[in-house]
Description:
globular; 44% helix; 4 helices
Amino acid sequence: MELRIKEILKKKGATAVWLAGEIGITQPNMSNIVSGKSKPSLDTLENIATALNVPIAELFEQTAQDVISCPHCGGKIKIVKE
């Protein structure tokens, strides 16, 4: 499962450097998360979602099943559309 952080940053006119500063991690660490080279913790995902002002589910690429897996722990999250 890929994260959509790069896409969301572009849509909001923000950079990974800005996001790293907002959530208190190093720019190289953020770069690895954005590129998919490392898997962020759930806490980091929550911080990213908060900084970008999006629901955490929006960080994940949508699947046909509307169920996503946490890249860190493998837990399943069902997406409920309103």
